[in-house]
Write a structure and sequence with these properties.
The structure holds two protein chains of two kinds.
Chain A: E1 2-6, E2 10-17, E3 31-39, H1 41-51, E4 56-62, H2 64-76, E5 80-85, E6 91-98, E7 106-108, H3 117-130, E8 136-140, H4 151-160, E9 165-171, H5 175-180, E10 185-189, E11 195-196, E12 199-200, H6 204-215, E13 221-225, E14 230-235, E15 239-243, H7 257-270, H8 275-289, H9 300-307, E16 311-315
Helix pairs in contact in A: 1-7, 7-8, 8-9
Chain B: H1 3-6, E1 14-15, H2 20-30, E2 34-38, E3 44-49, H3 50-57, H4 61-65, H5 74-84, E4 100-101, H6 106-116, E5 120-124, E6 130-135, H7 136-143
Parallel strand pairs in B: 1-2, 4-5
Antiparallel strand pairs in B: 2-3, 5-6
Helix pairs in contact in B: 3-5
The chains are: A alpha/beta, B alpha/beta.
């Protein structure tokens, strides 16, 4: 069974608008399409995995009416829940997609509720119990206030101590501590800032340099995106470049695409595929997801169609673009 | 239909060593009336409900409901709850817990619920670990 952890879940609200512009006065924009669903990166991975029939359990910190709505949504998706309750209300995040610019959404994320130590301790106890029965742990997203910055380091270590595979997808200041615990695979989230652990990502070489820096901590694979359609997989023995075909890609909603990528990787690793092949499939799942309005695409035929459009090439020393 | 097809896939539970205060917070937040009690591996070792907490605080309360007696003083309940809030769940949980297996038939769990006047029955896997819960409403939903 797969375990996903979302310590800062959210109720995601997505609005598609024809126009949005700041004109120095109150501006009302009417959405011509909306989508609301349980979210947070780990929960998105859970939704993807459930859609392809993989049994998984979602853990995280939830509270209030929004928390209960999220729990109900997960139940409706067929996901097993093992949630930790907090006093404060779970956050809501907003994404606005302007017509014609759907590949560059405006995303406004709340930092999340303040988490008391009691809830952190309670979560750790529940997590420790769940580790008795899972084969892979996916740790995704930001940490809410009150949760120690080193939390992912602790969670990776607890899983590794039981020989459980760990995959981490987080950004900013949380990457370093998580990497230091040596997860199986880490995908730094660079949406907010194109840098990882203080190193700017400007070209393929800089991506590989950062990847190697993370590998030195004991991580086995580092996956870094360059643009919407490309990824570089930096591994202990080889590096791989993956490119999807951007042409004829009609982008309707790229929110959640990165989580479909992680979901696709987990799905394929469970099927026994190699890491590069799993990443290729994950990229196809991400590309399939941007073509539908729903946050997580359930259309396997779209993934298969994208899979044929993706190139996976081993990168040779000295061939890196600058 | 099998239990695994109708159960709610929720692992909300308390550990034996957790306090009644933590239990009350969990029941209030999650809007549940009772939860399974598990050990450190997730094995079901008991069940505790709000009814068990009230019985712990006011042992004669449910007897009073069946007679012409009435609750003489709400402060009595409050004081007693204050006294026992730090006690572990294991002191008040039902230890002879009724569980069902994932592959049992819905008619079996319906019979258990009716005969024993239960609201919720924990579902366990082959190792006795909590796998979900069957509520009365799950059965009604499946039968409709």
């Amino acid at each position: 069974m797969i375990l996903t952890v979302t310590l800062n879940p959210a109720y995601d609200l997505i609005y598609w608008v024809k126009e949005i512009e700041q004109r120095g006065e109150t501006q009302l924009s009417r959405a011509h399409r909306t989508h609301a669903s349980a979210g947070g990166k780990g929960i998105n991975v859970s939704i993807y995995l459930a859609s392809v029939g993989i049994e998984n359990v979602a853990m995280g910190l939830i509270g209030g009416h929004t928390g209960r709505t999220i729990k109900r949504s997960l139940r409706d998706e067929g996901i097993i829940t093992n949630l930790t309750w907090i006093d404060e209300e779970t956050r809501s995040n907003v994404a606005i997609l302007k017509k014609g610019q759907e590949d560059n959404p405006i995303e406004v994320n709340s930092k999340g509720p303040e988490i008391p130590k009691r809830a952190v301790d309670q979560f750790l106890e529940q997590y420790d119990t769940m580790l008795h029965r899972v084969s892979c742990v996916v740790l995704s997203g930001s940490l809410p206030p009150g949760v120690p910055q080193e939390m992912y380091q602790k969670l990776v270590k607890m899983a590794k101590d039981r020989n459980i595979r760990t995959i981490v997808n987080t950004g900013g200041k949380y990457v370093g501590p998580a990497a230091k615990a040596g997860p199986f695979l880490i995908k730094p989230d660079i949406r907010e800032r194109k840098e990882v652990m203080g190193e700017k990502l400007t070209d393929s070489q800089s991506i590989i340099d950062v990847g190697n820096k993370i590998l030195d901590f004991g991580t086995q694979h580092v996956l870094l995106s360059h643009g919407l359609t490309g990824d570089i997989l930096v591994s202990q023995d080889k590096n791989w470049n993956l490119e999807a075909n951007r042409e004829q890609l009609e982008i309707k909603n790229r929110v959640g695409a990165g989580d479909c990528l992680i979901g696709g990787i987990v799905h394929q690793l469970e099927e026994g595929k190699s890491v590069p092949e799993a990443v290729k499939y994950g990229l196809a799942a991400g590309m399939a997801s941007v073509q539908v309005y729903h946050k997580i695409s359930r259309d396997v035929s779209l993934v298969q169609a994208q899979l044929n459009q993706i190139s996976l090439k081993e990168m040779e020393e000295g061939s890196y673009e600058s | 239909m099998k239990v695994k097809d109708i159960m709610t896939k929720d692992l909300t539970a308390v550990r034996e060593n957790q306090t009644l205060k933590a239990l009350i917070f969990l029941l209030e937040s999650s809007e549940l009336s009772g939860v399974p009690v598990i050990d450190e591996k997730g094995t079901v070792v008991g069940f505790i409900s709000e009814r068990d907490v009230i019985s712990a605080a006011l042992p004669n309360y449910f007897e009073m409901l069946r007679t012409a007696s009435y609750l003489p003083d709400i402060n009595q309940l409050s004081r007693r709850l204050e006294e026992i809030k730090g006690d572990p769940v294991s002191e008040y949980m039902v230890k002879e817990v009724i569980t069902v297996n994932l592959d049992e038939e819905d008619i079996h769990v319906a019979d258990l619920i009716i005969r024993n006047e239960l609201n919720r029955v924990p579902v366990v896997d082959e190792d006795g670990m909590l796998a979900g819960i069957v509520q009365r409403i799950d059965l009604l939903g499946a039968l409709l």
